[in-house]
Amino acid sequence: MLRLMPVGDSMTIGSAGEHTWRYRLWRHLCETYGGSFTFVGPRETLYDKAADAPTSYTYAEPGFPRRHLAGWGEGWLHMAPLVGEAVREQRADVLLVSLGLIDLGFYTNAEQTADNVRAFVAEARAARPGVRAVLLPVIPNVRAANDAPFATQVALFNELLAKTAADLDQPSSPLLMASVPETWDIHTDTYDGTHPNAGGEHKLAGAFADALHQAWGMGGPYDPYAP
Predict the structure, then answer these.
(1) Over the stretch 29-49, which tens digit does the pLDDT of each residue have?
(2) Which of 62, 65, 131, 147 has its CA 20 to 30 A from that of 156?
(3) Beta pairing, strands 37-39 & 2-8
């Protein structure tokens, strides 16, 4: 069985009442992946904004494997120390990673964040030498739209992320870059300039699905209109 671990920040954990891109990807793979698969991770909750804590189980669609390693306000800095144990215990085969916005916004600059990417990859491989990973760059967001220095840091980090993935890529443990959705629009794909609405969830799921299909033949091209 293929074991996929979503790793991310608030856009990946989602909040109470949301489907999440994790659900959208699961539905897609149910339709297009020829083998057995599941999502794994040490966590399964959504973020509860009222409680200001990741304590909600109120998914818009609860009938899917909800496990993940994602957290509201967490980034590469936070996940690097956690990923080794999570990969080891969950026996993850593929990591689906969407991180970086939190790091750049609050904790580290682009170069320091890239260093934490390297630490993350090292920890994951120490736990499971053959683990694969799909890395999504930081996507357009409202802060980058309104803060030119921050936008510069985002662009630099995305460049460094691609270089880091190329440097660390190994045949036995490949690192793959997903593409930022070309049509991503912070006004129509998010509900607040950052967090995805239903359309945004489909686009994030599609970014990972298309990378998995194009590089490794897993599943098929993403169709946001599929049931």
Answers:
(1) 999 999 999 999 999 999 999
(2) 131
(3) parallel
